[in-house]
Amino acid sequence: MSEVRHTCAFCRRGMDVRQGPGRRRVYCSTACRRRAQRARSQGQRERSSQPVSTGLALSVAEGLPEEVAALLAAEQAGAALEAVLERARRLAREVECYVAAAVEDGRRAGRSWDEVAAAAAVSTYTARTRWGEGEVRRLLGRRDRERGAGRDEAPRASPGRASAARQGEHAAMERAGRALAAALSQLHGDRSLQELARAVGRSPSYISRILSGERSAAWPVVEALVRECGGRPEYVRHLWESAHGLAPRARVGVDEAARRVHAAVMGLYLAAACPDVEQVCKASEALSAEWVGRVLAGVEVPDWARLSALVSALGARPGDLRAVWEGLH
């Protein structure tokens, strides 16, 4: 049987390999074969410890804090069991989408299905079935449709008072969301998005979507944005709670209730781009500049009739502030 000169696949030294049936030898010795196996294993460990591409996963992860915050706020407000469980289901769906997006990022970065399965502690068959490209596309497509419907579509009409009430609540949430985005944009001013994003630890595109009203954010993110822009978070708290459909917070003392009314008015004032007192009076045709100035300064507690006129002059609906005002009275 003849021999042919080849090169060892590991040490690159020359070696004689016999020609014939069977698997061709690629290493000059058992030691080289074992070293090559160790090198491959080390390379796999190094790849598994490296962060994967964060394109899809990051976009989903940025939405997780708002779902967690909404669930926590519902619990703290003593919401009904149905409402709390619905928040929990939404959080679970968001986590499911994040896992799928993270796997897709890993696959795009070159990770094998065996590596994905090991990282997720499932079999390779389960990983392929659960997070195949088609399944990931389906999950993320459903997420986009649900979020788009939540932002852009009004609830479908159905007979009965319950349907009308749901439509009214949805409309109020939409108005509060738009007002919150306007107030945050007013505070943002001309500051660089990149600078603001770095300060609050988020991506510029995420901050841009918050300021445009395309994306709702968890309260800690909104609070950090307001503080970074030199504003007072309590001024937009009512708008944020209303945009998320949260019930009014527990009753408090008179002084704190008065501060909440003032903060809610200031949130609408920010959303209206901080008009001059004279502009507000002209729009209301019934309020004095002195009274408006005192209310905006927080030294006047407004009665409902004049508060309604002020809210209308700021381009908002008085009914959206009724619960806050009733907390004082």
Automatic annotation (TrEMBL):
| Alphabetical list of InterPro entries matching this protein | Cro/C1-type_HTH (IPR001387), Lambda_DNA-bd_dom_sf (IPR010982)
Q: Which residues form a coiled coil?
A: none
| Comp. bias regions, Basic and acidic residues | 142-155
Q: Where is the HTH cro/C1-type domain?
A: 192-236
Region annotation Disordered: where it falls in the sequence: 142-171
Question: Low complexity composition bias: which ranges?
Answer: 156-166
* Pfam families assigned to the protein according to its UniProt record, in alphabetical order: HTH_31
Q: Which GO terms describe its molecular function?
A: DNA binding
Q: Superkingdom of the source?
A: Bacteria
Provide the protein name. Helix-turn-helix transcriptional regulator
The organism of origin for this protein: Streptomyces buecherae
